[in-house]
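@channel sequence for tomorrow's demo:
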Amino acid sequence: MFRFLVNLFGKSGPSIGDLLSNGACIIDVRTPQEYNAAHGEGSRNVPLDSIQSKISSLRKEKRPLITCCVSGMRSGRAVKILKKAGIEAHNGGSWQSVEKTRSSKIE
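structure tokens (generated this afternoon):
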């Protein structure tokens, strides 16, 4: 479905793969329990309900952020919050999708 929308409306911004290749930081916005059960290598857990209070530490990353969760819904909300704060952020969708893309960039 997402690819259909991208094809229909055009691509907006760099791909997740390009961002990862250029050192973007992966922010997993799921709950700590979800994150501890399984997560992508190198990701950082910043739950959506605490993202507003972590803006200053996230700003210190000085690199693009890729947010992820289970389906892309929470990560999409996180992107809106981060962009409103002036932080470059991109919705990576599910953490598994981001991990798969990250793994393929390493090989």
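heads up for whoever presents: The longest strand covers residues 89-94.
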